[in-house]
Amino acid sequence: TRELEQRIAERTAELQVANQRLTALAVTDALTGIANRHALERALQRGWQRCLHSGEPLALVMADVDHFKQFNDTHGHPAGDAQLQRVAACFAAEVEAVDELAARYGGEEFVLVLPGLSLPAAMQRAERLRTRVEQALQVVGLPGSISLGVAALVPDAGTEPAQLLRLADQALYRAKRAGRNQVMAALDVARTGAGD
Questions:
Q1: Does the active-site annotation cover 108?
Q2: Could you give the CA distance from residue 115 to residue 161 in angstroms, rounded to a whole number?
Q3: pTM of the entire structure?
Q4: Three-state secondary structure call for residue 125
Q5: Which of 52, 34, 36, 18 is closest to 161 using CA atoms?
Q6: pLDDT tens column, 100-156
Q7: Which residues on adjacent β-strands are paired with residue 153?
Q8: For residues 105 and 154, what is the distance between their CA atoms, to the nearest angstrom?
Q9: How confident is the model at residue 21 (pLDDT cuts 50, 70, 90)?
Q10: Catalytic pick from 56, 94, 108, 109?
């Protein structure tokens, strides 16, 4: 009986470890090792609820790797994957607080969730991130940069996290249209937590 109990305990421990690995895989992007879109959606909802209760802004930085398709076509997919991994490492290094999150949104798009940050503070973090990525990509001798869009909202009962994503996405595409390799703020400043 003792031997059987020991084997059951060992098997239970193995199953717990396997479940923990599966849970981690469910929220981690396989290529970059940072949070995936599913984890982003959960973190955005948690940040939204936290900021709704505290009355603080929730900031979002959305970035896109500039000319990524052209880079892939020129240097090959393994080099493109390596570029995405370098960008992801820069995003991960930018996370400063336990409730902040760096995630791969999809393809060559990345997001940084920053609960409690105003638009000006998030803009500073985005510019620091843009510079960090540019330096990291130059180290390997291959061209590369990112464009970033930043938005911040003080959540209220009449808004949803999707609105924050939409504002950051619009700002991102303004940055791309304006020449890339830059940071742009959302235009909807009346509701973007612009003050500190």
A1: yes
A2: 12
A3: 0.84
A4: helix
A5: 52
A6: 999 999 999 999 999 999 999 999 999 999 999 999 988 788 889 999 999 999 999
A7: 58
A8: 22
A9: low
A10: 108
